[in-house]
Amino acid sequence: MGAILMSLIPDLRALRAAGAIAAAALATACATPAQKSATSDAEYLLTVTRPGLLHVIDMKTDRIARSCELPGKFGSGALVPTRDGRHAFVLGNLWEDVYGFELETCKLVFSARQSEGDVTVKTVQSLAVSADGSELYTVQNPVRRGADRFEVLPPRLAVYRIADGLDAKPVRSFPVKRRITKIAATAGGEVILGGADVEAIDVRSGAVRTVSALASWDRGPRWLTPDAFAMHSQGEHLNEYVMPYVTAKFADDRQDMASAEWWWGMSRVDLATGKAEAREIFPFEFVIFSLVADPRDRNILYGAFNTLSRHDIEKRETLKVVELDHTYYSLQLSRDASRVYVGGAGSTISIHDSGTLEKIGTIQLPGDMSTADVRVAWRRP
Asked: What is the phi/psi pair of residue 312, to 5°?
């Protein structure tokens, strides 16, 4: 990590041209009628590959419509689309900088250089856009580089105005806990923070509340403290945030691991209301990196890693499991939920029938996705 933390960020100021900020306005009113029509009909699958490309995949044809070149070096590939489906923001340049693109044109309309001077800032997957599309949120993990030491500084939630365009600076910041990865914005002006517990922070006041107690839960000696995972949370198609966790129920107070019942659970947050539920959903039988719900029945969830699986969480049953040709990290559904797209890790996105889980196609990408997200962008009805 020392070499990464010492890396310098390329100067993005050369990317600014006269009138760029004005042209970068993200308001719906600024789009032309043709752009509005094209975006309204669009259904895109988004992901990032090495050495630094944001791919906009047309889900009607399962072909790459365009690839947007990212400034700087490859980052984590974390990305978030705006709710109107017109823009997407990507974490790049060694997990340090954020870039915003117009999806129809690949035009760079936003950039935030988070490191400055002797302070290097890393963001671990955490990107979110406000419900009204006006603000961008990141969790910053700063480290000051000295001549003979590193000084780890407190993490913070940074708030940017998207209309500030290129070379944007935070307009507000608030202290947050460590270990935060995936975040999401609610309609009520909070950001959901996925960490040891699931919390919510008010982006105007900085007030924090617990949404789902996980590491801090107290269910007695017969339950194992859960291990939560929020590297690839999905849910924009249902306006929700899903964070899986693993726990165990012991037969007695001796906490014998061999006889324990192992469970997958999840914290699920409705981003329209900020309300959440946390519960065990099906037995732990194999590793899952991400979960995504079926819009036709929110009790049906799909999971992916070395397998693709379908689960009924009301019945707490695994309905179907198929082996995948290699490890995948992230998955999404088509708008009509007929197809499952499984990506991340390698250079292929595997397409499956959502009913049978049978493989029905492949999207070949020009580079590997590594830790990149696979997200969907479309206009809501």
From this structure: -105, 105
* pLDDT for res 232: 83
Dist. CA 140–CA 136, nearest whole Å: 13
Between CA 343 and CA 331 the distance in angstroms is: 6
pTM over 0.85: yes
Whole-number Å distance between alpha carbons of 76 and 203? 24
Run of H or E residues at 22: helix 20-23
Q: Which amino acid is at 225?
A: T
* Predicted pLDDT of residue 40: 53
- The Cα–Cα gap between 303 and 342 comes to 9
Residue with tokens 């509340």: 209
Mean residue pLDDT of the chain comes to: 89
Q: Please report the sign of the dihedral spanned by the C-alpha atoms of residue 364, residue 4, residue 100, residue 124.
A: positive
In the chain, where the domains are located: 40-377
pLDDT above 90 as % of the chain: 85
User: What does the pLDDT look like over 113-144, one tens digit per residue?
Assistant: 999 999 999 999 999 999 999 999 999 999 99
How many residues appear in the chain?
Answer: 381
Q: Tally Cβ neighbours within 10 Å of residue 46.
A: 24
Q: Which residues contact 139 (CB under 8 A, 6 or more apart)?
A: 123, 124, 126, 155, 156, 157, 158, 176, 180, 183, 193
Q: End-to-end CA distance of the chain, in Å?
A: 45
Instruction: Name which residue leads in pLDDT, 109 or 12.
Output: 109
CA 54 to CA 224: how far, in whole Å? Answer: 40
Q: Residue 38's pLDDT is what?
A: 41
In this predicted structure, what is the pLDDT of residue 380? Answer: 53
By DSSP bridging, strand 87-92 and strand 127-129 are unpaired
As a whole number of angstroms, the distance between CA 192 and CA 178 comes to 14
Question: What confidence tens digit (pLDDT) does each residue in 59-104 have?
Answer: 999 999 999 999 999 999 999 999 999 999 999 999 999 999 999 9
CB 143 within 8 A of CB 5: yes
Give the sign of the dihedral formed by CA 217, CA 223, CA 225, CA 230.
negative
Peptide bond into 81 cis (omega under 30): no
Domain 40-377, classified CATH 3.40.50.150, yes or no: no
* Per-residue tokens: 109: 């309309």
CB-CB contact of 264 with 282 (8 Å): yes
